[in-house]
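Human: Not sure, check this?
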Amino acid sequence: MDMPRLPPHDGSVLSVVDMHTGGEPLRIITSGYPEIVGDTVLSKRRFVRQNLDHLRKVLMFEPRGHYDMYGALLVQSELPEADLGVLFMHNEGYSTMCGHAVIALGRYAVDYGLVKSPCSPETQVNIHCPCGLVKAFVEYSDGKTGAVRFHSVPAFAFATDVKVTVPGHGEVVVDISYGGAFYAFVSAERFGLDVNTSRTRDLVDAATAVTNAVKSQVELQHPEHKDLSFLYGTILTDGKDSFSEEPTANVCVFADAQVDRSPTGSGVTARIALQHHKGLIQLDQTRTFKSGATGSLFTGKAVQETRCGEFRAVVVEVGGRAHYSGVASFVQETGDNLSQGFLLR
C-alpha cells in the first residue's frame, strides 16, 4: 500500500511514530529537525530549548497535538554504549527523564532496527536520557516485542515531611523524591480528594497548588547536575505507602498542569525510592502502581542500593507495556496563522 501523497507545504516534513504507554501518549520524532548542536545530550537539550523550541510547539500543541501531548526527539549520544539518545518534550518544555517514554522507546528501538542483534527472551536497549543512561529490557520472541522493564538512574528521597504553605489549604506536609526528575508527593485525602474517583480538574488544581508552593518555598539541588535541579510536578497518591500485594494508585500532574494517563515511570521510581528510604519496602519487593486516570498498571521494585552524591539511593526497576497507535508526516503551510501551534487551557 502506497503512503498518502504529501499536501502542499513549505519547509521540512516532520515525521513521527505515535505510541502510548498505559494511555500516556508518546510522539517519537524520527526526522525533520535541523542539526542539533551539542557535545552531550544535556547540551543538546539546552540547544533545542534555546533555538528550536518552535518545533516543539508545532508537534505538541494543537492542531497537531493537544494540551497533554508528550514527545521524544531522537538524538546522537556521546556514550559509546548507548543505542540511542533522546530528548523529552511536553506542553511546557523539556524534561530530564520519562519512564513511560523509555518503555515505548525500548519497543521502538528493537522494532525499528536501532538494536543490531535482538535476542530472545529479552533484548537490552541502552537509552541515553538527559538524566543519564537508562537500561531497558524488551521481551523479544519470534521477531515480536512485548513488555518492557527498565533500570533507573540512582533514585533518592530528597526531603521528607516538608511543610509548605499552600494558598487555600494552609500548611501541607509533602515528601520530595527524585526518580530522574524531582516530584512532590502528598496523599489526595489531604485535599478531600480520591485519585480514583475525583474529577480530574480538582486533582489538577490541588496538585498544581502544591507544585507552585514547593517551587517558591523549597530549593532543590541535584548533587551532580544543576540542569536536573527543578521540581517537575506533584504526584497525588491514595496514601497506601506501606508494602502490599494490592495496587496503590496515584495521579501525576507535571509541567504546566499536564496530566499523566499512565502510573508515571519516573514517578514510580521516585515513589519506590521514597518508600525504601522510609523502610516501607525492601529490595526486590515488587509493588503494582495504578493510574488513577486510566487504571493502567506499572510494576516497580528497588533492585540495588547505591549513592547519588551525599544521598543514599536505589536503582529501581519499572515495568509496563507500550503500544503503537500510528505514523504521521506533519507539514506547515504558508498563510496558516495557527501553524505554529496553540493550546486551550
User: Anything to note?
Assistant: The mean pLDDT is 97. The CA atoms of residues 304 and 315 lie 5 Å apart. DSSP finds five helices and 17 strands in the chain.
